Amino acid sequence: MGLIATIALITLGISFMVFVTFFGRLPALRRTPIAWLHKLIWVYLPNGVYALDERLTGGRATNSCSRFANFIMYDQHPTILIFFILLLTISESLYLPTAWPLLSPTHKFFGTIAILCPYIFLYLSVTTDPGTITPHNHVSEMARYPYDFSLYHPGSTCRTCNLLKPARSKHCSVCKKCIAKMDHHCIFINNCVGAKNQHYFVLLLLTTSVLTLYGGILGLNILSTKILRRWPNWALLPWNANSGGEGMEIKQWLMIWAWGMQEAVSLGAVTLLALLTSPLVWGLLGYHVWLIYSGTTTNESMKWSDWQAEMDDGFAFKRGIDAGRRKKNLRIEPAWTRWPVEAEQILVRTESGRPPGRELDETGTEGGLVGEGEWEPVWRLRDVENLYDIGFWDNLVDVFWPGYMYRDPVSLEPRGRGRGRKGRRR
Ligand SMILES: [Zn+2]
Ligand SMILES: [Zn+2]
């Protein structure tokens, strides 16, 4: 039991750390223990260690540690990708020799698909260009999405690439390029997740979630069959087990478990690993499905959370834009885009907490000039429209078949399902 318990504890610990690291910064979890733990692990603990190290070695140890962490997180290299592939491959080669001969033809068939799919979608996520913006494709990328005058205002230039930033794009400091519909830079695939590989990334998450759950349940099944042959009164759940009419003591139940694990150590260890990491992968998949449902990206959900803070402070104002207006400054804003809807509002912040006056119109960004009517304060994200949310199904279509619902460039009428329904921020 010693070895198994150690593996279980380490895996559980690592999964939990990864979970807190990924989810701790999410706006949705801001006032939860997860966010608090994120602060503890990534702010207070490092600060404490740093203070201690300052006294002991003059800060040398933490210096090299932080250089290593920076290298892992913010440099482009395949270390984590290789670790991920090794974790998959080694686990499978430990698991399959015991499990394969015991599987029915149906499970052999689905098992083969479940094993192959993550490799295929990992390969496609890694090798597909996420949507690099170059001088060559800049005109077409500018026409991908309209500016929403909330998160993205026309006229801002990437200082590194020296190109106007298309709506929803972002410069990745790791890849050193501007990426269309940038979601985030993912160290597991050593690539950005953007407009052109987002669907492969979602499929990678989906197939990995299925693999871990499927492998875990199948492993549990094989182990309990093994155990039941020797201990017929045992059961997978302690309250179902019984020894001679009475309930089985938890201690005895655990001892029999340990016996079963020792009978098939590698299968048992991988089953445990699969079951412990499964919730993490399902969680990441759920988060990305939620992003698609809300018509947003990881990058934009951070921006919306900044806007929430501005709204809480009373610094956010909006007014209407005529969606059918003729765009005046075609140098910075494309005349038409392939997206079925256009911005109908502008959202700005002021330093003073008073509605923008003439000074903003004169000195503000070029985006600050558009719109008409009175400025009104905005207190809640719900009162702001998200231009990029056109309903769950159409958002999904935009991820998997971009172009299907886009407007016809000749008639400017929406094609396919996207008929210009406007979504609201959720
Ligand atoms: Zn750039
Ligand atoms: Zn990147």
Automatic annotation (TrEMBL):
<dbReference type="GO" id="GO:0005794">
    <property type="term" value="C:Golgi apparatus"/>
</dbReference>
<dbReference type="Pfam" id="PF01529">
    <property type="entry name" value="DHHC"/>
</dbReference>
<keyword id="KW-1133">Transmembrane helix</keyword>
<keyword id="KW-0564">Palmitate</keyword>
<feature type="transmembrane region" description="Helical">
    <location>
        <begin position="80"/>
        <end position="103"/>
    </location>
</feature>
<feature type="transmembrane region" description="Helical">
    <location>
        <begin position="264"/>
        <end position="293"/>
    </location>
</feature>
<feature type="transmembrane region" description="Helical">
    <location>
        <begin position="6"/>
        <end position="24"/>
    </location>
</feature>
<dbReference type="InterPro" id="IPR039859">
    <property type="entry name" value="PFA4/ZDH16/20/ERF2-like"/>
</dbReference>
<feature type="transmembrane region" description="Helical">
    <location>
        <begin position="200"/>
        <end position="223"/>
    </location>
</feature>
<dbReference type="GO" id="GO:0016020">
    <property type="term" value="C:membrane"/>
</dbReference>
<protein>
    <recommendedName>
        <fullName>Palmitoyltransferase</fullName>
        <ecNumber>2.3.1.225</ecNumber>
    </recommendedName>
</protein>
<feature type="transmembrane region" description="Helical">
    <location>
        <begin position="109"/>
        <end position="126"/>
    </location>
</feature>
<dbReference type="GO" id="GO:0019706">
    <property type="term" value="F:protein-cysteine S-palmitoyltransferase activity"/>
</dbReference>
<keyword id="KW-0812">Transmembrane</keyword>
<keyword id="KW-0012">Acyltransferase</keyword>
<keyword id="KW-0449">Lipoprotein</keyword>
<dbReference type="GO" id="GO:0005783">
    <property type="term" value="C:endoplasmic reticulum"/>
</dbReference>
<comment type="similarity">
    <text>Belongs to the DHHC palmitoyltransferase family.</text>
</comment>
<dbReference type="GO" id="GO:0006612">
    <property type="term" value="P:protein targeting to membrane"/>
</dbReference>
<keyword id="KW-0472">Membrane</keyword>
<dbReference type="InterPro" id="IPR001594">
    <property type="entry name" value="Palmitoyltrfase_DHHC"/>
</dbReference>
<feature type="domain" description="Palmitoyltransferase DHHC">
    <location>
        <begin position="155"/>
        <end position="304"/>
    </location>
</feature>
<keyword id="KW-0808">Transferase</keyword>
